[in-house]
Write a structure and sequence with these properties.
Length: 175
């Protein structure tokens, strides 16, 4: 999920498209994690493990940070009461904290597998992977169906510009 020039082109056009694009990449990441879990303990693709570990370590926390410092505050400001977005944003923000922690734990095991070493407890790693991708698919689905449509409807061109700038600042901070 490392940023490509194609992503940067999308990014320049509309930050909401960029977030949706990242959600699609996250769904692919969940599929990767499922394939790894299915292959444990012996049939794991090392390159896939290393790639997933990198996405979990770098891309996922940055994405969460973009939502928390950019998208969600703008939405809280613009959403109307009938959008009923406040509770869902609170719940998604709570999940970001848990998922960022969980992702870094999983990434440690995937790095071991990526080096071609064996993990101490493959059943536990499989269990953690399944817990993560099942919950994370739900998280992305909620954002795509409940949050992004409201963002498309309510955010102004100035908001989108502010969101773009915030995301660029966040990316600069992590480089
Ligand atoms: Fe999120
Ligand atoms: Fe998201």
């Amino acid at each position: 999920m490392t940023q490509t020039s194609r992503e940067r082109t999308v990014f320049a056009r509309n930050p909401l498209d960029m977030i949706m694009h990242q959600h699609a990449m996250q769904m692919q990441l969940c599929d990767m994690l499922e394939r790894i879990a299915d292959g444990l303990p012996d049939e794991v693709d090392r390159r896939l493990c290393a790639q997933a570990a990198s996405s979990l370590t770098y891309d996922l926390p940055l994405h969460h940070h973009n939502e928390e410092t950019g998208l969600f505050p703008l939405l809280r400001e613009r959403a109307l009461p009938e959008d009923q977005i406040e509770n869902i944003l609170g719940r998604l923000a709570t999940e970001h904290v848990t998922d960022t922690d969980f992702a870094s734990e999983i990434a440690e095991s995937l790095e071991i597998l990526g080096r071609g070493d064996r993990v101490g407890n493959p059943d536990m790693v499989g269990y953690m992977l399944r817990g993560f991708f099942e919950r994370y698919r739900r998280h992305v689905h909620w954002e795509n169906t409940l949050v992004m449509p409201v963002a498309r409807m309510r955010l102004t061109p100035e908001d989108l510009e502010a969101l773009t700038q915030q995301m660029e600042r966040n990316r600069g901070d992590t480089l």
